[in-house]
Amino acid sequence: MSEIYFHMLSKNELNSSLINIKNLTSLLLSTPAILLLLLACSDDDPQPGCYQDSGLDIIETINNARGTIRGPENELCAESFLIEPDEKVERRPLGSFFPCNLSEEFQVNDARVIFSGYVYEGINDGDQCADFFEITEIRPID
């Protein structure tokens, strides 16, 4: 004959168990919300603001580069302002940036600047005079 034993929980043990279950339930329910909040606030991926209609992807991020603004009379893109970086990079053979959002205050030929932003993939039509670029930060060199 088997015997079955029932353990009677005291009032304190019962309350303690209920509190632990409530805490565990609360933790399990809030964990996805906390993870979602942390992931939503992540700034790891760039958020493009230019060239959206063309469907171009960001291929590189530039941070605090030095360069010179070249006015519309430049030899590469005759009707546009460009940023010509001080350091030429082999993987960007065009060598200059065509900014989609250069503010009027920086549209000054030969102005020296420090700039950051996103380089976009090119269009392989042979008619591109500079790399597509979106400025995220720009300031004059003192």
Describe this structure in words.
- Helices cover 21% and strands 27% of the residues.
- The chain has one helix spanning 11-40, and strands at 58-70, 82-85, 97-99, 112-120, 131-140.
- With 142 residues, the protein is of the alpha+beta class.
- The chain has a domain at 58-140: OB fold (Dihydrolipoamide Acetyltransferase, E2P).
- The chain contains one helix and five strands, in the order H-E-E-E-E-E.
- Strands 2-1-4-5-3 form a five-stranded mixed beta sheet, with no helix packed on it.
CATH homology superfamily of the domain at 58-140: NigD-like N-terminal OB domain
Rg value: 29 Å
Quaternary structure of the protein: single chain
What's the tally of helices? 1
CATH fold assignment of the domain at 58-140:
OB fold (Dihydrolipoamide Acetyltransferase, E2P)
End-to-end Cα distance, whole Å, is: 94 Å
